[in-house]
Amino acid sequence: MASTPQTMSGILIEEPGDAEVLKWKTDLAVPQLTEGKILVKNEWVGVNYIDTYFRKGLYKAPMPMITGGEAGGIVVDVHPSVSNFKPGDRVGYLSSTRGSYAQYNTAAASLLQGLTALTFIREAYPVKAGDWVLVHAAAGGVGSILCEMCSSIGAKVIGTAGTPEKMETAKKNGAEWVISSRKPQDELVAEIMKITEGHGIDCVFDGVGAATFEADLQLAARKATVCVFGNASGAVPPVDPLRLSAGTPAKNLKLMRPTLFGYVVTAEEYNKYATELLGMIEKGIVKLERTSTYQLENAKQAHIDLESRKTTGKLLLQVPQ
Ligand code: NDP
């Protein structure tokens, strides 16, 4: 096997800011193997909305940083403490410590959006047949998969999306009803009440955040779960817990703010959900059909497109070999 080089190409962020701060560098240090780690030569890197939060400084990380939390590639080196991987193995991995926007990364070994959707429908709110479920950004990365999973369980899925094309995609994903996310929020609430014949939504999955949170509380049914898991439109401001029991009779809402990395902490948890997700992909429940690809060097354009609501499905960066 060829020896691992000392330096690599990748995207470095030296200070927080807009997409311009994603700088292509050709002299980055290849990460060192430490206990329990494998070294992966990345082939494809997953772009996720969270990458924009780290880039902007909404989520804090030491600078300079190589961002990115997900990639797939080939194992090229293994620490002596690791026995379950060997050079040549093909792997997909998540990294809560970032570092995937580059040619090499270490992993404690995409899946990030699929595992997010799966852990949320199992643990944040166990979705059942017959539930009314609302998925915001239903043509996006996580939203597409949430629609596929919830509809396969037999839930009644309503989606929101920003353009007629994205609304069509959301339907194909399994949202039986789709409402434009460009509508005023009071119209969204009224439409949901009409579709559900006054019942409201049993579980809202909301990765949009600030722009939709107030409507979520209004369109939620009694005893519903409002699961806010992202900030695509900005972070939700602090909430007075008393608001969760507003209404006559009181709604007694559950408010969740889950993070994938809190559900896949142990190897057992990770393996359980990764296995179930791969099974869903094999069965065609999760299709992963809609991907847009960019060269790693052009990560800036991927961020610009993602943040301007132009994209559907998954965004991937191709890594030069
Ligand atoms: P998406 O592909 O879903 O992109 C975000 C979408 O949000 C846009 O396409 C757009 O859809 C919608 N949107 C609505 N309002 C705005 C706005 N003002 N600005 C930008 N977008 C807006 O991204 P991802 O699938 O990568 O992520 C979705 C959400 O899930 C993000 O908030 C992300 O942070 C969160 N997430 C959370 C995780 C966790 O563990 N908590 C893990 C993974 C993702 P449209 O135009 O159709 O309305």
TrEMBL record:
Domain of life (superkingdom): Eukaryota
Enoyl reductase (ER) domain boundaries: 17-317
Keyword Nucleotide-binding: no
SMART domains linked: PKS_ER (SM00829)
Keywords: NADP, Oxidoreductase
NADP recorded as keyword: yes
Protein name in the entry: Enoyl reductase (ER) domain-containing protein
